[in-house]
Amino acid sequence: MPLESKANGEDIRESFPQPMEIIYTCTRGFFTRKQLFKRLPILQWLPSYTLQYLVDDIVAGLSVALTVIPQGIAYAAIANLDPQYGLYSAFMGCFIYCIVGSCKDVTIGPTAIMSLMINAHVGNSGPEFAILSAFVTGCVVLLLGILNLGFLVQFISFPVTVGFTSAAAITIASGQVKSLIGISGQSNEFLDSWINVFQHVQDIRLWDSVLGVSTIIVLLILMQMKNLKGNIFWRMFGKYVALSRNAIAVITGAFLAYSLSDIRNSHPFLLTGNVTPGLPPIQLPPFSTTIGELSYSFSEMIAKLGTSIITLPLIAVLESVAIAKAFSKGKPIDATQEMIALGISNIAGSFVSSMPVTGSFTRSAVNNNSGVRTQLGGITTGIVVLVALGLLTKTFYYIPKASLAGVIIAAMLFMVEFQAAAEIWRTKRIDFIPMMCTMVACLLLGLEYGMIVGIGINVCIVLYQISRPSIETMPLTIDGICVLVAKPDQNLMYSSAEYLKHQLLKQADKHQCQFIVLDGLHINSVDTTVAKALVSMTHDLEHSDRKIVYWKWNRSVQCTLLRMDRTLFQKTFRHEESIDVIIKELIAQQTPTRSAV
């Protein structure tokens, strides 16, 4: 029947929103004062800013800077880039987020997971690809934010996130073992890293190993200083020692390397080496490049970036929004604004040779524990990083690779989410399957493919649950006639169509019921496949001289079925409160027919 058909004088056509209505809804209020304050959060907190806030923000900014400088150098190594690129990535996000960021605790910059994913795609192709990747990531994230598509990250469930994060931490730590013990090697993948270690066992350097292991032990000890007891002085001393532990470990390692090399006229440790001094040039991202004798156009560079143009933005959004929620203390977080801030940070960063950045949980925790009051703390962090680039790069030469490896491994020890895994096992054990599959796949196949495997398994589990709705059946006897009442507990999707039909016919045959009442109280939507299956089931029951009644189905679902077959369905919908009344009416309708026969 055509969609213009009417049942009982009512219009059953399916309505669609007009294009102008969609445009109006999306743009309504876009150019208002309220929207301006929403998209520029600095306008909300700056007017009420005080001098006391400034002191707290400077202290917090310094604490974060002392963390991000050694981390930036280390993360550049993970991405297989020169050390300065880690620092180039550490300041622009701080400045941008101060203006458009909505959570005072979040710090934007290089992270271990993003660095590892950059290495997988552009680690051997030169910094130009990493910089372009930052630009593309920023454009994609900004577009997702403008279009309010942040819901896409909701398809990545908590178990998949736990498996992904844990696998990333294990992979990153494994990739740093070679630097920890002073052996050569390029790969940062889990299996390749350990194969490389066992192949070069004979090349292990004693003093690098001692320094690396000692760095990890010292970092773990310093982290406990935050729990120092005593008067206010000792508590504050322990707090800031714990917050600055990474800087303390790296500075101590560099001083030790410099002192020993000066005494022995040789280097007992493998060192970071030369770091390009000075600030990065402000220029357009590289839309073409030449590596050796090969020239790459923009399209060829994008092709080489591969799936990272999708996975990097999703992981960046997932990390940043999750961190903002973790530190929001119950306040609502505008995911769209966080995506806009992150997108602009990456785009602006690509103009100063930054690799892709996102929110850092470690540095955000440092920011929070340091008592930051507003986003202005990021300005201090950015300025300190710029000062380090301009004045301190010569001292970075003596930073031992083993110290940086120790810093990374110590951080990764707390990224393996044992507690979250225990919660998943305790709460719902079937969720342990996508978590473990994600983790194993990430370790064996790589982070991106592992994430896809995890999401795929999760979707399969959800589809299976949707395709097998719980159907409550209750056989009744009314006037000596068997009546089967069936009530599905959820909406009916195409994957559940044949299952529903099979179960109803099976139960009707089992109880020899002449009437079937299908209760649609919990059914708010059906698709074409379900409608077709219900047509087939209704015909099958009629051929076996049985009747079906569609009871308490809402209007939108009725219209869907009527558009499929109005003649068949318009006589089967009933809304009476009592099943007894419905069945007795049907029995009365059948009695004259049988008498006539």
UniProtKB/TrEMBL annotation:
Pfam families reported in the protein's UniProt record: STAS, Sulfate_transp
Cellular component, GO, one term: membrane
Highest taxon of source: Eukaryota
Subcellular location, record wording: Membrane
Record keywords: Membrane, Transmembrane, Transmembrane helix
Domain STAS: 483-550
Transmembrane portions of the chain: 58-78, 85-109, 129-153, 160-184, 204-222, 243-261, 305-327, 339-362, 374-392, 404-421, 433-464
GO BP annotations, alphabetical order: transmembrane transport
Keyword Isomerase part of the UniProt annotation: no
PANTHER family for the chain: SULFATE TRANSPORTER (PTHR11814)
Name of the molecule in the record: STAS domain-containing protein
